[in-house]
Amino acid sequence: MLFHPSYHRQTSRLWAHSLRAGALTLILGSLSLCQAQANPAECTPLEALQPPQANTTDPHKPFFIDTSGLQNGSGAMPVHDPHNPLYPQAIDLPDETLPPANKTGNYILGPTHTLPALWQDIQPARGRLISFTLTSSSTSGYNPGTIRDEPVPCATGMKNVSTSQPGDPSILNVPGAHPAPWTRTVDVYVPPNIPADRPLPFLIFGDGGNDGIYPGRDLFALVDRLIEKHRIPPMIIIGVGSGGGDAQGSERGREYDTMSGAYADWVEAHVLPLVEQKASVTLSHNPEERATMGFSSSGAAAFAMAWFRPNLYHRVLAYSPSLVNQQWPHDPALPGGGWQLHSPWAGTPHAVPPQPGAALIPAAQRAPLHIWYEMGDQDLFYPVRPMPDGMHDWVLAGENLARVLGNKGYDYQFVFSRNAQHVDAPTIEQTLPEALEWLWRQHN
């Protein structure tokens, strides 16, 4: 995920919650404050970068950006038409109606995002919250970390000085990135009356800890209520803080947007053993009892954890996942980054793409995954102007994935939300109870 300048204005609807009170802490308010304190005169205007010309007219040339089905909205991002002919068919739901928790396929939410009745009688979380801190070291993994120094005191300075490699806008050159240490918080929630006589299912999500960006109401209290109603099995919830920063050149971007099993391996080696030790629980090793969840780039990480390590995870839940070309550093073996989960590298259109440009999921046998994810009609659309690579439309990425999953016969549900922005809080609060129920409905 990349914080677009207008994204801070868009998040005025999001609520900040303290994880120490049983929820997660939203950091966007502090980011907005930093931006407000910057001197606009010290920020390089985007126009001064002379970004490469975007190809929006010729689909037969590389890096084509299709703008059909888009219209200007009230915010910075265009509004996507859910019935764009580029997208797979989806079922329109009546306003304020949710997709069935026992069905698969593509669904379109109406524009009104009201709280489900379940939220009305939720009590504060009653379980145990255990927190611990991880710091980079010679044995921590991801050592050293990565940090991006902003060349000017501007919250979007990276976007104002980065450039694409000449002739290939899919490669972003990011000045100011260098090795640095990191510190992060891990939070473990153990619901009340959890069984102690067997290994336990768990859901692990990125962007947790003190730097979390989960914008909804109390996740832990929701889990308590869903368990009480037998809508999900008893499980442990684990929130892992990111390594810091955002997008290309940051540790957060490095971990979440890299398309490999590296992050899942790091969690397995450096996080889960400490969770078991400090919370006095035993976690299941059955991939059917392990779920990943994330928001934006941590949503991309949720997909990567399951796709590249299906021996570890079978269940994925994501809001506005960055299934786009956010991988940094650039990897010539996968030049489209997360875009290549579902679609070929955009530099070779209308041809069977040679390796390494081929899409991964269409070329592979169906994996035993259960996938629920959402995109908003005002989700991100090429937020970094110097990178018109044909692979940075968040909604198109989600739609392309839905087509691939449908064609391959996956167990999935894709929700397109009207009147919804990137990591949209009202949409999350409206859909999360059913999303969790859907994700775990086949658990025995």
UniProtKB/TrEMBL annotation:
It holds the Pfam family Esterase. Residues 1-38 form the signal peptide. It comes from the Bacteria. This is Esterase. The lineage of its organism: Bacteria, Pseudomonadati, Pseudomonadota, Alphaproteobacteria, Acetobacterales. PANTHER family: ENTEROCHELIN ESTERASE-RELATED, IRON(III) ENTEROBACTIN ESTERASE. Keywords: Signal.
